[in-house]
Design goal:
Length: 142
């Protein structure tokens, strides 16, 4: 069963809750963004910029009627609730000393060029598998 499958919590309330949670755990900044590529959040924590995309389903994947629209909206609400619970869990693990912030958010940490460590690493893993060689340690080839 999908978490928050039947939530009626509006998206803006979930985003506001996410922002409060991040502030309570020490985030210095918070931002929300929306573009044709998708939606997401970002925050700054101890100098690190973290960005997390929310994979909103494409509207055209749902029937073009009231039922389809309602299902699409429900799925978007559910995904924001999933993000909220995931952030709470990760930050609580860090707060309890079970793991580190870096371990929990490494893949979503922004590099100087705006890309995320996870995106860079995924490409490098593919290269390593194909070539059997380690990549350069820094994205700019240094």
């Amino acid at each position: 069963m999908a978490y928050a499958k039947n939530t009626k919590v509006p998206i803006d309330r979930s985003r506001a809750h996410i922002e409060r949670v991040l502030e309570n755990y020490g985030a210095e900044e918070f931002f929300y963004g929306s573009s044709p590529r998708g939606k997401g959040i970002g925050f700054k924590y101890k100098g690190r910029v973290i960005k997390i995309g929310v994979p909103i389903p494409k509207r055209e994947e749902y029937p073009n009627n009231q039922t389809g629209r309602m299902k699409w909206e429900r799925e978007e609400r559910r995904l924001w609730r999933v993000l909220l619970i995931a952030l709470k869990a990760k930050l609580e693990l860090v707060d309890a000393g079970i793991t580190s912030f870096e371990d929990e958010f490494l893949a979503q940490t922004c590099l100087p060029d705006g890309s995320a460590v996870g995106d860079w690493a995924k490409e490098q893993i593919g290269v390593m598998i194909e070539t059997g060689k380690m990549p350069k340690l820094l994205p700019n080839g240094v």
